[in-house]
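Chapter summary example: a protein plus PBG.
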Amino acid sequence: MSELQEKYPNNRLRRTRQSQWIRNLVSENSLSTNDLIWPIFICEGSNVKDEIDSMPGVYRYSVDRLNEVVDQALLNKISLIALFPSTPKEKKDSLGSEALSPDNLICSALKKIKEKKVELGIMCDVALDPYTSHGHDGILSEDNQILNDETNKILVKQSLLLAEHHADIIAPSDMMDGRIGLIRNNLEDKGFKNTILLSYSAKYASGFYGPFRDAVGSLDNLISDKKTYQMDYANSDEALREVAIDIAEGADIIMVKPGISYLDVIHRIKSEYNFPTFAYQVSGEYAMVKAAARNNWIEEEKIIIEQLTSFKRAGANAILSYFAIDAAKIINSSN
Ligand code: PBG
């Protein structure tokens, strides 16, 4: 900048802040319903809509109640939902076998929603933690190490099962090495050329996942932390390596998780690769905002929009958030 430009009073940044219309015109980022992905928990039973204690306003739905979810999504102009199962304890085992059952909660939910033939994308997680008795994303050796290559074989089968049930986006969140390439090769071999692969490339070993583990029932049985596969939150160079590898292996979209504490990681990835980059505002982040709002310590609606907009500013293309419907309602009512 020239010396003249830097000088007050010629330069008064407050000129473009003086009214809403000019603030709108110079605004660099905005949040729309196209940016929102709504996570949904599925449980067994019939006519169940069960609120999760640590996530007020978030529910587990039985498959027969999913019409309500689809209607809400469409009404509020949400274009993608992400499904997570709350598997009953008796169906969990050390290999996560239920993940490969064509009658499991996610396959049943896919059948139910896809028969409606609506314009709504469905994303499904690939990982074993909702199905394993020990709560880990992979299978264990005799001395409780998480086995990478053996787990990958199961993840490939889980991915093919989801693709067969018409999942639009398959999202490995397990953090095993090499799974993106293996899943992509197998999808191509079996003719699933249009299945979108979203890799949770930069998924950190985080304290923010507590309420989710409660929601899917993997909290009580988790036998140890996930630091041997999820990333160390002190690192971001490593996130760039993860992303580079996943892009090379055939990912279409990458995800950073958790969200607000990792905006720098989103920004670095987006600046480095210019690749579709999503972010996950996780359960602990949701629970913190809810708890503060319930005490009237913050204004919930303002915080929701401010946080989600900051993801856009950091470079995220879309955000997976338990606030998706609340945010959509706020956005739609201001249009
Ligand atoms: C694991 C998985 C986790 C979440 C979604 N899938 C985390 C974990 O238990 O390690 C957490 C999401 C959230 O906290 O909202 N496959």
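Key point: The longest helix spans residues 148-164.
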